[in-house]
Design a protein that fits this description.
CATH topology of the largest domain: Phosphoenolpyruvate Carboxykinase, domain 3
Number of helices: 17
CATH class of the largest domain: Alpha Beta
Structural class: alpha/beta
Oligomer: single chain
CATH architecture of the largest domain: Alpha-Beta Complex
Distance between the termini: 68 Å
Largest sheet: 9 strands, mixed
Radius of gyration: 23 Å
Bound molecules: guanosine-5'-triphosphate, sulfopyruvate, manganese (II) ion
């Protein structure tokens, strides 16, 4: 018997009866298994080999052209009570959800292999980690799960010890957008995903488990499951401050997590340590501080825009043992995307000879999958069972106007409001229009597995006499001038903003008190060596009262959609900010 846990073997048998696979394979995560899977995918065309001289053990996967991003309009939270899912989620009653999706699963694995993928989100020995098992008929998913999670025998052993696990059932089905659903049953700790092989739709440990199901568990158990990077900033004095930051999809988490300090900072002794680029699980420790782990083991990062100038660490980690999805190819079979370098690709992401008339060569949501250990700034503390203590939480979005470069919340409740009021221009990470401003509280709009009103209340509940909570900040790297050019250089220079935060944490910097929060004095932002004139800095740090009154009114309209469940403390905080702005 492949597992000693009856609940697991019984579930696998039930799924096999429904889906009718030709074979069942229990994944152990070994190298032999990886080699055999890779050989099979090279045979059937799921993977294409890349240049073995420049990119040993790297492969290209081209997904179906209609299956290139998350599908929020097909993603459901199925709870007994509709209000528990909230207006922020699409909802179905659990019975209806199971019936609809099981009809698609019936017989769908005929002639295929069913893979049983045991995985652990977080270090195997961590009390903060949680396990799951994904059943899938996609070897590409197995290969990605092996990089993105602690997958295989060790995870199975922990599952057998724990006696419980999150169940995730996945099939690529026909890859037909008309026969596609991503369903979550938080009360049953179950996920069912059909008809997509892409990223967050198919690697069920990631958004489905580590955010949607985990956020539900976190609320019941007193912790937080967030769409946040974790980065360690080591100052010249040798202290490391850990910062968690929530930006919506394709808004800069991977880049901030592995930023390279500007030269003068490097020479002065600043260092950056990468702990996570997408998901953060946090809970108060015995000392009252929030302690965080990254539940993932790898990065599924956005390729376009990743180059030596923007994110050299990422470029360097992608030269071996990486999977590329929907990128372009050079004439000597190297992966390529817009923003990598000046070469002209030979083939676009669909495999057609490159023709600029067909649009970008790499899909805007093309991605790389790579183990975190390959990152030059990898922090060994990623393996710490108890995680790292968080000094600051940062919220941010893509806003070409209005929102200043950085401001600080006056206290926890104000910080929760800043998170709840977040908005950002949409990106290619999800299907649908790009560049439209939408409300995206805490960057969790697509990922919160329950009613946002209850989620805000949960956040507020962390303020207790015994907790020592991090400071909360809001940033915006994406302000543009009248000509549509970014006002702030971004990327490595974002460390200048983080430095101000650290000085605030240490009590070493003053701030300007404004109705929206605490802003730096222009002279307190280190702009040495930057091509940023006083006028630009003035625009980046300006608070336009009339425009902010309109913004606060829009936030109020949005928050009112949550009705009576919205915590009164949040509304009171909004009233306070509105009054400070002058009504
Ligand atoms: P997900 O993996 O979808 O959750 O995205 P992410 O938040 O990790 O975003 P990522 O760091 O991959 O950045 C997405 C895009 O934003 C890339 O094209 C980057 O080049 C660009 N970007 C990141 N940081 C900055 C910045 O500071 N300034 C500007 N202008 N662009 C940035
Ligand atoms: C995101 O969209 O926020 C991602 C990529 O990190 S996916 O895995 O597709 O969710
Ligand atoms: Mn993400």
């Amino acid at each position: 018997m492949p597992s000693s846990l009856p609940a697991l073997t019984h579930w696998v048998e039930t799924v096999a009866r429904l889906t009718q696979p030709a074979h069942i394979h229990w994944c152990d995560g070994s190298d032999d298994e990886r080699r055999a899977l890779t050989a099979g995918m090279l045979d059937n065309g799921d993977l294409l080999p890349l240049n073995p001289q420049t990119h040993p053990d790297c492969y290209l996967h081209r997904s179906h052209p209609d299956d290139v991003a998350r599908v929020e309009h097909l993603t459901f939270i199925c709870t007994e009570n509709r209000d528990d899912a909230g207006p922020n989620n699409l909802w179905l009653a659990p019975d209806e959800g199971h019936t609809r999706i099981d009809a698609l699963f019936a017989g769908c694995m005929r002639g295929r292999t069913l893979y049983v993928v045991p995985y652990c989100m977080g270090p195997i020995d961590s009390p903060l980690a949680r396990c799951g098992v994904e059943i899938t008929d996609s070897p590409y998913v197995v290969a990605n799960m092996r990089i993105m999670t602690r997958m295989g025998a060790a995870a199975l052993a922990r599952i057998e010890r724990d006696g419980h696990f999150v169940k995730g059932l996945h099939s690529i089905g026909e890859l037909d957008p008309e026969r596609r659903y991503i369903m979550h049953f938080p009360e049953e700790l179950t996920i069912k995903s059909y008809g997509s092989g892409y990223g967050g739709n198919a690697l069920l440990g990631k958004k489905c488990h580590a955010l949607r199901i985990a956020s539900w568990q976190a609320r019941n158990e007193g912790w937080l499951a967030e769409h946040m990077l974790i980065v360690g900033i080591q100052t010249p004095a040798g202290e490391t401050h850990y910062i968690a930051a929530a930006f919506p999809s394709a808004c800069g988490k991977t880049n901030l997590a592995m930023l390279i300090p500007p030269q003068a900072y490097r020479e002065a002794g600043w260092k950056v340590w990468t702990l996570g680029d997408d998901i953060c699980w946090m809970q108060p420790g015995a000392d009252g501080r929030l302690w965080a782990i990254n539940p993932e083991a790898g990065f599924f990062g956005v390729a376009p825009g990743t180059g030596n100038k923007t994110n050299r660490n990422a470029v360097e980690m992608l030269h071996h043992d990486a999977i590329f999805t929907n990128v372009a190819l050079t004439d000597d079979n190297q992966p390529w995307w817009e923003g990598l370098d000046k070469r002209v690709p030979a083939f676009d992401w669909r495999g057609r000879p490159f023709d600029p008339g067909n649009g970008a060569a790499a899909h805007p949501n093309s991605r790389f999958t790579v183990s975190a250990r390959q990152c030059p700034s990898y922090s060994p503390r990623m393996e710490d069972a108890h995680g790292v203590p968080i000094s600051a939480i940062v919220f941010g979005g893509r806003r070409e106007s209005l929102v200043p470069l950085v401001f600080e919340a006056r206290d926890w409740c104000h910080g929760v409001l800043l998170g709840a009021a977040m908005a950002s221009e949409t990106t290619a990470a999800a299907t649908g229009a790009v560049g439209v401003v939408r409300r995206d509280p805490m960057a969790m709009k697509p990922f919160c597995g329950y009613n946002f009103a209850d989620y805000f209340a949960h956040w507020l509940s962390f303020e207790q006499p015994e907790t020592k909570l991090p400071k909360i900040f809001h940033v915006n790297w994406f302000r543009k001038d009248a000509d549509g050019q970014f006002l702030w250089p971004g990327f490595g220079d974002n460390l200048r903003v983080l430095e101000w935060m650290i000085r605030r944490i240490q009590g070493d910097a003053d701030a300007v008190d404004t109705p929206i929060g605490l802003l730096p004095h222009a002279q307190d932002l280190n702009c040495d060596g930057l091509d940023c004139n006083p006028d630009q800095l003035g625009q980046l740090l300006a608070v336009d009262r009339d425009a902010w009154k309109a913004e606060i009114a829009a936030v109020r309209d949005y928050l009112q959609t949550f009705g009576e469940r919205l915590p009164a403390a949040l509304t009171a905080e909004l009233d306070r900010v509105e009054a400070a702005l002058g009504g």
